[in-house]
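Quick review question:
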């Protein structure tokens, strides 16, 4: 294991997508440790904004949290943000998420994931930062049949525009690292789940529908595998690398990509059964063929993460789903106005 620097609590950290799922949990964890967090988010309506405001209500309780509402595609606003707060570390988690939605509304992905990320890179170039950490995705692996998925694998065949934008982000970050000496780390997240998660994700929408007595839609007739990764593991992984920009590679570029996944793909039907056990309800099921943009399996090789940061996500689906269901029953569904039942 290589030695790595622990979190420096005196750093000013910008978290884009702070009202989002991962951004909220990361910000909360860092705020509790006394770090000054600048949160930036456009609060778009891709899913129920009341959940985003519920997250912000919690973050706003911390004196060391500052929130600015704005869009990454607004270059002037992004530049103003950097000029005013001078972040030393930037964590770019803001993006238009969702594989299937990218088929319906590709423009949103170009605006946020391409133009928005370009604006972040430009701001990091013009207002020197110590480390840019940005969200990529396991979706970049497409229909890769070599398992587990390694960051050394060729990923030139995306099966969704969402995946293509995330691969583009990696290429853009590498280029800016090379040309402008911006230390950058990309993180390929694998199916993140947990409390305050995204309602469009399967586990959340399944729970909504099961608790409302509605059937759930299961694609590829349930024959899929996912490397489900609990949110606390994602946050710990990010925290460990914040103050550890990558060393120069053989081309003198400070850029590296890591997988963050549980390194243990679960059968979709086993995941559903575990969720049913946690809810105490058996779901009525409807089976459908594979949907465009979906992949059969995801499986993270986390060797580099273990070697560089002595860390490997290991929360079981039993533990993770139990925590999610506890939050859902005690915090979310108790307020019926907040419930989001997806069709």
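Suggested answer, residue by residue:
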């Amino acid at each position: 294991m290589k030695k790595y620097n622990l979190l420096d609590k005196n750093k000013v950290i910008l978290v884009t997508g702070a009202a989002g799922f991962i951004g909220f949990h990361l910000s909360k964890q860092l705020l509790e440790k006394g770090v000054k967090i600048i949160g930036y988010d456009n609060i778009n309506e891709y899913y129920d904004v009341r959940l985003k405001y519920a997250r912000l209500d919690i973050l706003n309780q911390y004196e060391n949290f500052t929130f600015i509402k704005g869009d990454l595609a607004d270059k002037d606003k992004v530049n103003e943000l950097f000029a005013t707060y001078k972040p030393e570390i930037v964590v770019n988690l803001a993006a238009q998420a969702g594989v299937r939605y990218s088929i319906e509304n590709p423009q949103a992905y170009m605006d946020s994931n391409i133009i928005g990320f370009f604006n972040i890179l430009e701001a990091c170039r013009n207002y020197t930062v110590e480390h840019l950490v940005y969200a990529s995705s396991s979706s970049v692996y497409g229909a890769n049949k070599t398992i587990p998925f390694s960051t050394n694998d060729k990923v030139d065949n995306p099966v969704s525009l969402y995946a293509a934008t995330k691969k583009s982000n990696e290429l853009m970050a590498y280029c800016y690292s090379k040309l402008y000496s911006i230390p950058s780390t990309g993180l390929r997240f694998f199916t993140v789940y947990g409390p305050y998660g995204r309602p469009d994700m399967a586990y959340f929408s399944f729970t909504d529908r099961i608790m409302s007595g509605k059937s759930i839609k299961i694609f590829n007739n349930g024959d899929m595998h996912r490397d489900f990764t609990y949110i606390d593991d994602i946050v710990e992984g990010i925290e460990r690398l914040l103050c550890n920009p990558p060393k120069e590679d053989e081309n003198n570029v400070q850029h590296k990509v890591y997988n963050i996944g549980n390194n243990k793909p679960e059968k979709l039907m086993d995941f559903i059964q575990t969720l049913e056990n946690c809810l105490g309800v058996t779901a009525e099921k409807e089976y459908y063929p594979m949907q465009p943009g979906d992949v059969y399996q995801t499986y993270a090789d986390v060797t580099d993460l273990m070697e560089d940061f002595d860390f490997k996500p290991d929360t079981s689906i039993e533990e993770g789903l139990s925590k999610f269901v506890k939050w859902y029953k005690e915090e979310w569904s108790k307020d019926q106005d907040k419930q989001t039942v997806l069709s």
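Why it works: The two ends are 47 Å apart (CA to CA). Confidence is low (pLDDT under 50) at residues 336-343.
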